[in-house]
Amino acid sequence: MNNFSFLILAGGYGVRLGNIDKGLIQLGFQTLLERIINTGNQLSAEIIISFRDENQKQVYANNISHFLNINKIVFDKREGIGPLEGIFQGAKIASSKYIFITAVDMPFINKNVIELICKYAQNYDAVIPIWENGRLEPLHSVYRTNILIKESDRSIKRGERYVIAPIRNFENIFYLNTNIIRSIDPELKSFTNINTHKDLMKAKNIFK
């Protein structure tokens, strides 16, 4: 996937898990961040990690030795914006035409699922998985980088902080039905994320 950068959003506070850095949660022999980096390395030559600040990066560096091999790291410059600021900063330094975005609390991202999503990107400005009930997965999607930079910055300046805010101004989006993804990931575990202790226990049970 030479035309794709791979952005990992790791800047969250993990409030519902007791203010922990979720990327340092251990599943098996790896942390969540390590698992996602390893998947990203199979897909893209450009891995970008977004942290909220230098202090958070140092916490990760103190706990994950090979993490420092990542040479593209960005920090929030506008505080209190949330993941949309990380998306903007990460997209700004991406060198590829397209950028795949995922969050550090998604432990079961699947290389084959990501390849499927990105396969559709050549003819669109974004490819976003959509559930039957209309719910979107904007943090497991691919975007045309230059449009994402422009529209995420505009959304932030308008005070719109939701991750889906920039999408409203994308003209050419392919909404990929999750039923298509089931051919590769029957239980759609790729979209599992960890926000609460209950989510964490569920993820650990899946991992077993």
TrEMBL record:
Record-level Gene Ontology MF annotations: GTP binding; metal ion binding; molybdenum cofactor guanylyltransferase activity
Subcellular location(s) per record: Cytoplasm
Record: residues binding GTP: L9, A10, G11, K22, D76, D105
SUPFAM superfamilies, sorted: Nucleotide-diphospho-sugar transferases
Binding site for Mg(2+): D105
Gene Ontology CC annotations of this record: cytoplasm
Family annotation (InterPro entries): MobA-like_NTP_Trfase, Molybde_CF_guanTrfase, Nucleotide-diphossugar_trans
GO BP of this protein: Mo-molybdopterin cofactor biosynthetic process
Cofactor(s) this protein requires: Mg(2+)
Major localization class: cytoplasm
Keywords carried by this UniProt record: Cytoplasm, GTP-binding, Magnesium, Metal-binding, Molybdenum cofactor biosynthesis, Nucleotide-binding, Nucleotidyltransferase, Transferase
Domain of life: Archaea
UniProt keyword annotation of GTP-binding present: yes
Domain MobA-like NTP transferase: 7-164
EC number per UniProt: 2.7.7.77
Catalyzed reactions per annotation: Mo-molybdopterin + GTP + H(+) = Mo-molybdopterin guanine dinucleotide + diphosphate
Pfam families in the record: NTP_transf_3 (PF12804)
Free-text comment on this protein's domains from its UniProt entry: The N-terminal domain determines nucleotide recognition and specific binding, while the C-terminal domain determines the specific binding to the target protein.
Chain's role: Transfers a GMP moiety from GTP to Mo-molybdopterin (Mo-MPT) cofactor (Moco or molybdenum cofactor) to form Mo-molybdopterin guanine dinucleotide (Mo-MGD) cofactor.
Alphabetical list of PANTHER family matching this protein: MOLYBDENUM COFACTOR GUANYLYLTRANSFERASE
Assigned protein family: Belongs to the MobA family.
Name of the featured protein: Probable molybdenum cofactor guanylyltransferase
Origin species: Methanosalsum natronophilum
Gene name per UniProt: mobA
